[in-house]
Amino acid sequence: MLGGRTRAKVPTSGVRTGFHGSGFWLDLNIDLCDFGHLSCPGGSPPPHRAAGAQRPLQKPWHSQQLCSVQLSATQEGHLLPPCHHSAHSLRGWGPETGHSPLCPELSQLGRRLVGRKAPEPKAPAPVNSIPGLPAPAPRRHRGPIQTMGIKTALPAAELGIYSLVLSGGLAFAARGLLEASQDGAHRKAFQESVRPGWEYIGRKMDVADFEWVMWFTSFRNVILFALCGHVLFAKLCTMVAPQLRSWVYAVYGILAVGATMGPWYLLLLLGHCVGLYVVSLLGQPWLCLGLGLASLASFKMDPLISWQSGFVTGTFDLQEVLFQGGSGFTVLRCTSFALESCAHPGRRYSLADLLRYNFYLPFFFFGPIMTFDCFHEQVSQAEPVRPEGELWRIRAQAGLSVVTIVAMDIFFHFFYILTIPSDLKFANRLPDSALAGLAYANLVYDWVKAAVLFGVVNTVARLDHLDPPRAPKCITALYVFGETHFDRGINDWLCKYVYDHIGGAHSAVIPELVASVATFAVTTLWLGPCDIVYLWSVLNCFGLNFELWVQKLAEHKPLAQIEASLSEQMSRRARAAFGAVNFWAIIMYNLVSLNSLEFTELVARRLLLTGFPWTTLAVLFVTYCGVQLVKERERVLALEEEPGLDKEKPE
């Protein structure tokens, strides 16, 4: 999404240039970062599944196996908008192939990465399996070294030291940012984006991200009114005629879009919907995907984008954001519909099914995007029944979103993390620790913004008996490119229709390279082609493939022998050291799109050149401590999910 600043000028459908991190306070709670866990019934899989079919649980420990006779991070895949798809799901579009019903989501049109799946032993689809739904996940046999990588525990005292070092490092960086924010509050360069806030205590507020400000000031009442109206009519319909609720969703969505953007814009989108529906009748997936990409390009490149934007009635602050969001997601949803129609020719989906799918208001402008099979299965339930405790989880999700919004409002009165990077002279005067914290905080804020948006939208969707995708995984818990994404929905869409279709098992170097390049090419189109997006795509595509190259290299002598000769705990420490380096590669590669190339160069120069070796080693050690704590959390979760594994007690 566009931010309200002059940094990386990217089309609104692209990289969120205005998101600049915040929130050390959020990331100390490493796994509280995942808003989505509140919505999962106890013991049930995360809401990445399609209705009526559970998606195999993701195993966070896959990414730990950096070198278990393979030094690599075995991970579940994402490419560009990293796709969280099941490592066990079958791939393909044809009726004979099982799909992982991914329920994607969008974080305001933004940038997202794709990752790689761990190679899986190919399992035949079970007899009587239903096309389009995932086959039961095969039980993977783990060798001794693999098991070591999953369950290895470190001494409690060592983990305590890591916690103290990480907390101290974040506190020290936050102190430097707080002092810098106070010193720069009255700078002339800050006048546009640091405005009066809590004047009674003399605090100004960072308002550099215009989208965040618009959502919670001038457009707050409009958004609440539209969503409350949707919930009210949906509830009445569910009580009176539940079999018609999908029609109520569609009619209300069409009326809301027409009232917001004008009838001509509505007709424009209907034209794209009809075009892709007609092509879907031919039953050719390549033709559907080609027309879908052509339609997407028409909203991303001139002169067609300028012509089509003229269909919007009136002008208002969020017009460009809503235009790009509604148009882009409409094309992706219609493409998903067309591809699913080709995959299941016997089901005979109608144009009415497409319209009900596309004009579901909570998902229309900002996502998340659920693939058609996932949405259709859930919304077609004649008598939807809530799981036990679901209403409590919905209330908790809504409450957490409100608390996060309030916390971010407080945060912006003390930390001007969105404004400081725009003044390179001022940023260059920051201490090394504060500059590293500023870079990290920018990515955290991008995640927070996506998590709040998805939290609000998903709350409404759950009231409608849908099971939408979770919020993206917190940046603090990411240390492999294969799990890096800011939008599970876009990530899942790309993996299902592009990445997995081309890459297969994601274990061979050349097919993986072709699959990742193709996926990042589609993502570049989604974000809006420009120099910054090209650079971002190349860097993240390289990072994703480099992990596979390291994995392949580590499978051979002498690295495999070295890994096998280490104790289990030393092996985990070695993997965490690689993870710390990878963590900063992820930050730097994505900072290019969130801020500017100039700010990224400044951070890289200070941390790697002028600050070498002490600043470099200090930052990497603090990061190493954080990666070890994340690994410990993943170890605990893996043991909870795998009762067959004996829990090792720390020394």
How does this model look, in words?
This protein is mainly alpha-helical. It has helices spanning 24-27, 144-151, 156-184, 210-215, 220-240, 245-261, 263-280, 285-298, 304-309, 319-343, 351-358, 361-364, 372-379, 390-412, 424-428, 432-463, 488-503, 509-527, 531-554, 559-565, 568-594, 597-610, 614-641, and strands spanning 194-196, 204-206. Strands 1-2 form a two-stranded antiparallel sheet. Strand 1 (194-196) and strand 2 form a beta hairpin. The termini are far apart.
What general outline do the C-alpha atoms trace? globular
Low confidence ranges? 1-148, 645-651
Global mean pLDDT: 77
Strand content: under 5%
Distance between the termini: 48 Å
Total beta strands = 2
Structural class: mainly alpha
Helix content, binned percent: 55-70%
Order of helices and strands: HHHEEHHHHHHHHHHHHHHHHHHHH
Spell out the blueprint of helices and strands:
Blueprint: H1 24-27, H2 144-151, H3 156-184, E1 194-196, E2 204-206, H4 210-215, H5 220-240, H6 245-261, H7 263-280, H8 285-298, H9 304-309, H10 319-343, H11 351-358, H12 361-364, H13 372-379, H14 390-412, H15 424-428, H16 432-463, H17 488-503, H18 509-527, H19 531-554, H20 559-565, H21 568-594, H22 597-610, H23 614-641
Helix pairs in contact: 3-16, 3-23, 5-6, 6-7, 6-11, 7-8, 7-10, 8-10, 14-16, 16-21, 16-22, 17-18, 18-19, 19-21, 21-22, 21-23
